[in-house]
Amino acid sequence: MDTPVTVLELEARSYEVDVSLEIKPVTYMNWIQEIAWVAAADQGCSVAWFVSNNLIPIFGASHFEKVQPIRYTDRVVARTWFMRMEDAFADRDFEVRRASDGELVLFGRVECILLDYKTRKPTDWGEITKRFRPNGKSVYENHQKPPMTPVTDDISFQARFPVQVAEIDMARHVNNGFYLRWITDALYNYLHPRLGKAADGTNVKSMSMKFGSAISYGQEAVVSGKMIGVGDGFSRWSFELGAEGSKRPATAELSVRWAPEWTAQLTS
Question: What pTM did the predictor assign?
Answer without folding.
Answer: 0.90
